[in-house]
Amino acid sequence: MTATFSGVAGLALFASPVAALSRQAMTIYASPRCGCCAAWARHVEAAGFAVSVQHLDDADLNAKKADTGIGPAFASCHTAFVDGYAIEGHVPARDIRRLLAERPDALGLAVPGMPGDAPGMGSGTTPFEVLLIKKHGTSALYARYPS
User: Fold this and answer.
1) Which of 71, 77, 99, 110 is the most buried (most CB within 10 A)?
2) E-strand stretches of the chain
3) Are strands 85-89 and 108-111 parallel, antiparallel or unpaired?
4) pLDDT tens-place string over residues 69-96
């Protein structure tokens, strides 16, 4: 099943042809039962990504993570792909934009687990980290919140 989220961000595209050209396609793989995945999809869509959601059962979602190289230490509730990078969990859109601008030699970004104040989860001040997932299973700190 495919779902496409369209909201205020979609309307803004009609007002600006330049904005339409800058939207990057993002495919999100998530469980159909997860409300926070839908909330995160709205977060990245509001940030200008063209979002498509593919619902998978848990076994297929975990297999997709494993096939991509996302180990259990990085896992969260959904996995997205944008411009050759994997985005695992509730990564803030601004860090995804930074990743796409910098183009590091890496698998992508992860916010392991489901931190209560990450985008799509909450809006408080509980600290969480964004990790750069390197191609050989290691990681490096990419961002820390609150910053």
Assistant:
1) 110
2) 2-3, 25-30, 50-55, 78-82, 85-89, 108-111, 128-133, 139-145
3) parallel
4) 999 999 999 999 999 999 999 999 999 9
> Position 20: which residue type?
A
Give me the residues paired with residue 78 across strands. 30
Q: Which residue has the tokens 């007002």?
A: 15
For the segment 97-114, the average pLDDT, to the nearest whole number, is 97
Question: What is the SS3 assignment for 48?
Answer: coil
**Alpha-carbon dihedral 29, 52, 48, 120, rounded to 10 degrees:** -40
CA 138 to each of CA 42, 59, 131: distance values in angstroms, whole numbers, following the listed order: 29, 24, 10
pTM: 0.84
Contacting residues for 21 by C-beta, under 8 A, at least 6 apart: none
Rounded CA gap, 32 and 123, in Å?
23
CA distance 65 to 88: 9
End-to-end CA distance of the chain: 37
Rounded to whole angstroms, how far apart are CA atoms 130 and 147? 11
Q: How far apart are CA 27 and CA 38, in angstroms?
A: 12
